[in-house]
Amino acid sequence: MPSSETRAGSSALVAGDSDLAYVALELRDADGVLVADADTEVTVTVTGSAELAGMASANPKTTERFADTTWRTFDGRAIAVIRPTDEGPAEVTARSSAGEATVALTVTAT
């Protein structure tokens, strides 16, 4: 059974309209190897000083919308785009049947 993993390209965001964080959502086995053939729905929630701007996967035939909070992984992966809303801490949590994973972000002043 794969587990969920999240990673942020950067853990720091600048408050305002011009910064985004891209959080990789991946399904990995017990050894940390990507499980590319185990796709599942992943729901993302954001708390604190940021919001979910959108989600995506590389699936060329998806019917999901960028603004949806739940996406099906494609080849074991999806991505969440996070937008800062104010200065302070933020937390991104991904939940799926494979488990739950969280990444912390910090939004700094402009």
How large is the share of residues in beta strands?
over 45%
> Which class in CATH terms?
Mainly Beta
- Which architecture would the CATH scheme give at its second level? Sandwich
Strand order of the largest sheet: 2-9-8-4-6
| Major sheet details | 5 strands, mixed
GO biological process, one term: carbohydrate metabolic process
GO molecular function, one term: hydrolase activity, acting on glycosyl bonds
Domain Glycoside hydrolase family: 9-98
Protein name: Glycoside hydrolase family 2 domain-containing protein
What do you see in this structure?
It contains no helices and 9 strands. The strands form 2 sheets. A 5-stranded mixed sheet has the order 2-9-8-4-6, with no helix packed on it. A 4-stranded antiparallel sheet has the order 1-3-7-5, with no helix packed on it. Strand 8 and strand 9 form a beta hairpin. The mean pLDDT is 85. Keywords: Glycosidase, Hydrolase. It comes from Microbacterium sorbitolivorans. This is Glycoside hydrolase family 2 domain-containing protein. One of its GO terms (biological process) is carbohydrate metabolic process.
Q: What's a concise summary of this model?
A:
The protein is mainly β and 110 residues long.
